[in-house]
Structures are given as C-alpha cells and as structure tokens.
Amino acid sequence: MTFDKDQTHILADQFINHLRVEKGLADNTIQSYSRDLIRFLGYLDNKGVSPVDATRRDITGYIESLEGSLSLRSIARGVSALKMFFRFLINDGRITESPTRLLESIKLPRKLPDILSGEEVDLLLSRPDTSNNLGLRDRAMLELLYATGLRVSELIGLRLVNINLEAGFVRTIGKGNKERMVPMGDKAREALKSYIRDGRGVLLKGRSSQSLFINSRGGQMSRQGFWKIIGKYGIIAGIKKRITPHSLRHSFASHLLEGGADLRSVQVMLGHADISTTQIYTHISRERLKQVHEKFHPRP
C-alpha cells in the first residue's frame, strides 16, 4: 500500500487525538509520544517507507539508529509510543498485524528515588514565611503535597471544589482520567484554611478563578512555577539533596510504609494502576532498615 506524506501527517494527528481523547493521557506524555512518533516517521520517510508498510526490521533498525544519541529511558518510551501507534492502526483497520508484536520491552535499571527524612520534611515545610500571602500559599502547597502524595500536575490542577476541609479529603483526577479520593492530615487542612481565608483572595487581585493555587500574577500556578518554589525552599532549608515535587511524593509513600501502612492502601492513594509500581517503595524501606541495622547494631 502506498501512502503520501499528507496522509501520514493525518494519521499522526489522528493518533495524537486518540491519546488525548480516548486514552486520556497527560499533556506531557502526549507531547513526549508526539516527539517520538515524529522522529520515527522521519526515519521511515528517509527510507521511503510508509507507516502502514513498516516491518519488524524497520522497527529494529530505527531503534538501533537511536542508540548513542538518546538515553535508554528515552528509547524505551519511544518503543512504548510505537506499540501504541501500531495498535491504533490495527484498531483503525489500517493494518492487520503490528510489526512491534514480537519486540521485547527494553529493561531499564530500577533506580530508587531519593526521599527525605522526617526531619528534612519538617525543615522544608517550616521554611515558607506565613506572614505574607505567597508564604501562606507555599506552605499550603507543600503541606498538601506531603500529606497526600499527589503528582505535581494533580496538585496544580486542583480546584476549590476538589477540597473538602470538613471531611479532610482531596478529590483529584489522575492518569487515565481516573478519579480518586485521598485523605489529608490536620496540618495540611489548617494550612489550606489559612491560605484560602487570608492569602488566595489577595493573590487573585479581584479576579475570579476556580483554581485552588494562584500565582503572584493572579493566574493558575504552573508546573515550572512550583518546581522553582520547592527548589528554593530546599536551598533555604539547607538540605543538600535535590528537592523536587516528586521528592515529597516519594517521601509520602516511603514514610507510610515505614509506619506500617499496607501496600494496597498506598497504591490507591498514589493512584498507581499496577501495584508493581508501588512495590519500589518496599525496597526503599528494606534498604533503610538495613542502614539502621548496620549503624546501630553492636555486631553489624
């Protein structure tokens, strides 16, 4: 079957729309998959091959062409994008068999995420100056992130209606457009109450918004804005580790498990579709126990 470039572009657009509308993937994931697909289609174009005629040899040749120029993680993500793309072509009736069918997934080395100690968390969360509006907001965001383990995209996407201060729950929409309810502790509730009562309205500057967290210009807080905020407080707190929003998410999960929480409950709170994703935190807990044993046992 022959396919011109315009038809290839239409197919790519339809696939991206499929990811957004039917799969409900996050914008960042869609952007990454879009780049992966464009890179692959460019490779096929240079070979004079249309995507509906691509073979397993084309796929393996493409992957080999990436080695040395992209990280193993980026290549693995690209393979996932291609598998989804060819499944889409099958479901759309364009092809009958995926050239990625027998392609093995690239095994990535499992890297344990950095976590903060309880003392470091306390130090970080105490840094915002709550005598001003921005400090009230920052304290509320940090407290809520550690209290719930939300992803940064979920945190900044919260609306006022997602917060139930009476019951102490937050409702969020996670990956795959799945809704979940996560409890929050008293400290997070009090920080949110103070921010909503005393800080949020001032930051809005007379504007109307359903977004919970507002930036200094009166608009919705961005991912990049919050990354800068949490990094700043890490420096102010004198913590040597690199602090990111994921640092608090990882710490939330690890500290729960160390305190005796069951894995399934932590999985639900984190919004993991597969419990194997959550199991990485059990490795962290075991490693910490080993470190404590070696440090304090009289015969290590």
Provide an overview of this structure.
With 300 residues, this protein is mainly alpha-helical. It has two domains: 87 residues, Tyrosine recombinase, N-terminal domain (DNA polymerase, domain 1); 179 residues, Intergrase catalytic core (hpI Integrase, Chain A), CATH 1.10.443.10. The protein is built from 13 helices and three strands, in the order H-H-H-H-H-H-H-E-E-E-H-H-H-H-H-H. A three-stranded antiparallel β-sheet has the order 1-2-3. The longest helix is centred in the N-terminal third of the chain and has 21 residues. The chain is globular and about 65 Å long.
Summarize the structure.
It is built from 13 helices and 3 strands; from the N terminus they run αααααααβββαααααα. It is mostly helical. A 3-stranded antiparallel sheet has the order 1-2-3.
List keywords for this structure.
single chain, 300 residues, DNA polymerase, domain 1, hpI Integrase, Chain A, 2 domains, three-stranded antiparallel β-sheet
